[in-house]
Amino acid sequence: MRYRQLGHSDLKVSHIGMGCVTFGREVDQKSSLSILDHALESGITLFDTAEAYGQGASESVLGEWMQTRRARSRIVLASKVTGTLTRERILSSVEASLKRLRTDHIDLFQTHIWDDVTPLEETLAALAQLVDQGKVRYIGCSNYSTEQLSAVLALSTDAGLSRMTCAQPPYNLIQREIEAGLLPLCMAQNIGVISYSPLAAGFLSGKYRPGQAVPKGSRFEVIPGHQDIYFTARGYQVLEQLDEDVRATGVPHVQLALSWVLKQAGVTSVLVGARNTSQIDQALSARVV
């Protein structure tokens, strides 16, 4: 396992991170704990969750695991606040997350989505307060555009507030928008990039084909909105090219698609989700493709 510095922070994270979105939602508690055990034993140190995942269930599962395994000091813990980013909302959110996670601090606390309503300075001041209080070590953002992150960095500098240390965008063979602006900005400003959805929510696994019914219990059934992103002419075109690469190399879809993201300059860590331990092993094998 490779480990990299996360932006300008002193956090070192594994090149592959554990995305905890499935825990408490698509994976039961017993299986979730087993997957978390396997991830840590395999060298994964970054564990990313959010209050929105399973309406807090993911954080609760992760909190129980950290406590029963005494794993808190061995990992980099990341979580997120979603929705309206007022001072009151952010402060109450982190308290609820800390309680579910059974810890007194979060290493990386991120805003999950951009808030068009709340003044940006109010949001950044609240995040800075959490850093000053020691409840959060570093702050970051998820799903921000280049322009939004630029505004955040400019205001934090002008106001002397805590500077975001990372961005968390989707990035895969189909969703490559960050290459035009966000990724170069992060590289220039020493902002870490923790990308997610390297397999396009499972689309690049090769099991989804035009005209076929969506498998029951799959990510695309749980979150139908993902279909609009990937079940497109471009999506199927990329999948056809991946099919050709699989035939030429003999390497499975999952390993090829994940390996591509892992090799991209500027990406600090890639989050992978899992419903069983074998999917962790699949992700680890992609490093050597």
CATH topology tier name: TIM Barrel
Order of helices and strands: EEEHEHEHEHEHEHEHHHHEH
Put simply, the count of helices is: 11
Task: Give the amount of beta strand, in percent.
Answer: 5-15%
What is the rounded distance between the termini?
14 Å
Kindly describe this structure.
It is a single chain. By secondary structure, the protein is α/β, with parallel strands linked by helices. The protein has one domain (3-203, 254-288): NADP-dependent oxidoreductase domain (TIM Barrel, Alpha-Beta Barrel). Helices cover 42% and strands 15% of the residues. It contains eleven helices and ten strands. The strands form two sheets. Strands 3-4-5-6-7-8-9-10 form an eight-stranded parallel barrel, surrounded by four helices. Strand 6, helix 4 and strand 7 (136-142) form a beta-alpha-beta unit. Helix 1 crosses helix 2, helix 2 (57-69) crosses helix 3 and helix 3 runs parallel beside helix 4. The longest helix has 17 residues, at 233-249. The protein is globular, with a radius of gyration of 18 Å. The relative contact order is 0.14.
Walk me through the topology:
Blueprint: E1 3-5, E2 12-14, E3 16-19, H1 29-41, E4 46-48, H2 57-69, E5 76-81, H3 87-101, E6 106-111, H4 120-133, E7 136-142, H5 146-159, E8 166-168, H6 182-188, E9 192-195, H7 219-222, H8 225-230, H9 233-249, H10 253-262, E10 269-272, H11 277-285
Parallel strand pairs: 3-4, 3-10, 4-5, 5-6, 6-7, 7-8, 8-9, 9-10
Antiparallel strand pairs: 1-2
Helix pairs in contact: 1-2, 2-3, 3-4
What labels would you give this structure?
single chain; 289 residues; alpha/beta; TIM Barrel; eight-stranded parallel beta barrel; two-stranded antiparallel sheet; 11 helices; 42% helix; globular
